[in-house]
Amino acid sequence: MTQTRDLVTVIVPFHNCRDFLGHAISSVLAQSHQDWELILVDDGSTDDSAEAALPFLSDGRVSLVRQPNAGAGAARNAGFARASGASAFVVFLDGDDVLPPEFLVRAIEQLASRPDSTAVRTTAVLVDAEGHRIEAADFATHMNTRRVLDGRRFVPLEPSRDITFLELFDQSRLYPPACALIRTEAVRTVGGFASHLAGAEDWYFFMRLARLGPIAVMDAPQVSYRRHSSNATSDPVRYVRAARRNWSMTYHAPDITRAERRSLSKVWRARQRDLAQAKWHLALSSPRSRLGTPRLRLAAESCGHLLLWRPPKFWMRTGLRRAVDAPSDPRVGYGWHT
Prior knowledge:
CATH architecture of the largest domain: Alpha-Beta Complex
Structural class: alpha/beta
Helix content: 25-40%
Distance between the termini: 43 Å
CATH topology of the largest domain: Spore Coat Polysaccharide Biosynthesis Protein SpsA, Chain A
CATH class of the largest domain: Alpha Beta
Order of helices and strands: EHEHEHEHEEHEEHEHHEEHHH
Shape: globular
Radius of gyration: 21 Å
Mean pLDDT: 89
């Protein structure tokens, strides 16, 4: 019989998610591990999403919170504030994603064998609006393409290796948030999500978790990550501004030790060298125009990366109109987007 020490708090923030919310909720009800509480947070929906959730409230483990629209990070924090004091683990499930039935059982078993870990992470598969799997080889490759700094260069990292603070400072392969079962105490320690980092709050959250302790990895079962007309596009400028704040807040955090900052500096400089090299090659291969603008811009950006020795402090407060890491050429990317 499941013990109360294995109580899982599942938090589902949603905004105008009427067509998919029932699937997300049903995937929690269908878990093999049944010792859970489900906290639904209506983040200012303007459709009847909340009404779609009402029938599920007949299960005493399910509750609904309503708040004005404040973003996913704030909604997750609102849900976590209502977690039971007996909660041992947390899952942040977006209202349009789906957990596989064995997820909680497998993840709890994995964490039980890894007391040093703050969380355990699986991967995701893309599904469409109807829940059919999307065969996206580039997404699968992206999720499993990891790297770690070895000396002055990045080298490939086995997908089964623990996820660390330094790896996440470079880049994240940990999304959607539902891919992770997290120790409740670890969430309390890091203080939840930084809601002002809209677009990169998940990344910053998991980076702080990894600083507490490694994030273990399991290869199955996989979470269904839904792509549909309401979420299939992204705002690159918004994302990069949030990412810059993420890097700057982490690098200049007052509690970062000298040793940690030295390690972050090495990762940062290696990252900038990679970007500089990529943009320089693109500059050389770009077609000539009358004024040579594409080549000049890419060449200038390449030099800029080499001069960027650390994330500037002012990135914490604001953002440049044009992001340093934003790709001026579509062949230079910073993440996977549909």
